[in-house]
Amino acid sequence: MNQIFASEYFDTIFRYLPTYKDLHSCLLVNKRWASCAIPILWEAPFRVNDKYISSPKVIQTYLAFIPDSTFHKLGYNKRIGLSNSRPPFFNYPSFLKELTYDQFLNAVIAIDFSEDIIIELFKLLAKNDVRLRRLEIYNCLNNYPENLNRKGHLVLPHFYECTSVFSMLTYFNCSYRWPVQRIQLFNVIAKYCHNIKILKVSIYDKNEGIALEGLIRSQRNLKKFSLVNSNNFASFPIQALLNQKHSLGSLALEDMHHSPRLNSAKFFNYGICQLNSSAIDVLAQCKNVNKVKFKHCEGLNSSVFFPLANAFSNLTSLEYSYGTYDIYDSATPIRLLSDIIMTSCNTLKRIALDWYSEAKLDITQLVEIITQQVTKLEYLKIPLYTLEQLALIHRTHNQLRKLEINMNREINFYSALYLFANVPLKNLWFYFLQN
């Protein structure tokens, strides 16, 4: 079998294995299988089965590639980390493709290394010609005591100096507020990377906004853009999306609100979603957007956002969510949501509406638009307040594959079940939640 298949076939097969445990089993077969499995395991060492972890053992392994002379130069009597008396079988740092900076820093701080060692680790990545395809730097330093925050501040600029590391990025998440500015990072990526497909960012001052504007304009084919927890300066980068209007397919606005209980970030900007009319006009020109998401955003009822109602005629997915069972949405943008759905009624396949309101909202017209105008709907999630609204939903079950309903307590639960008693379960998965 080893003689029949080339290494690239093993790589393809191994990437379809469901868990990392299966990949670890491949290491035990023979050296060739191991040489195909190791790069996959080490391209995202701070992520296991889609869960992010901070692993000091990864850092210890990386340190084995730093020569003794470097430790002596930094004032250490002996090397730290794994011994390099026997060189590792594989060049583990060279396989790195995905880096979650928070978890990387967590792992380093857990071992209590100095700033100099962290800087040497950055240099190690550049020396091994690492080309990241995914970089996430969010909630940076939020959970550390002040003395550890200081360590993080000191090393960040040295990470930016490793310019080659950023040249192949396709995914960049730099969201939520930092205790330091990110202008240098944005400028470096704008200069050396032009292939970002997915961008998730936050903005807090004018200079950051201008730097991010340059980053967006420098990209060739941006497909997904998310604006997270930003203030009014976010209009600068939004206007730069005009350069990406032919490629942009997904738009998200997230975490712009006044509720302290809706976030866990230490550095959080409390304020409503603030975009000027010029920024909204640019978004309205992005006609190829097919997915829109609003999550925990206040201020969408403003007339500034009305041009978005008729802007997207080819949406396949619309999401709106705000609050939890004890945090209420005081200004649900029913009109905006209704108009967006009506504009894309011939293409929408997924509608996820998930808000919690203290008052009983009149959404019958919204439900009528969904049930009578949307022709290709496959998934629907929605809060309902009356049995009449539930009956309207019932009429559309033939086209739905999945239905989730959050029912107001005024709806009799047994009446709701009776409505759907004859719906074949093999054709529709439905879920009722009553609050």
Automatic annotation (TrEMBL):
SUPFAM superfamilies: RNI-like
Annotated F-box domain residues: 13-46
Protein name (database record): 6950_t:CDS:1
Superkingdom as given in the UniProt entry: Eukaryota
Lineage, highest ranks first: Eukaryota, Fungi, Fungi incertae sedis, Mucoromycota, Glomeromycotina
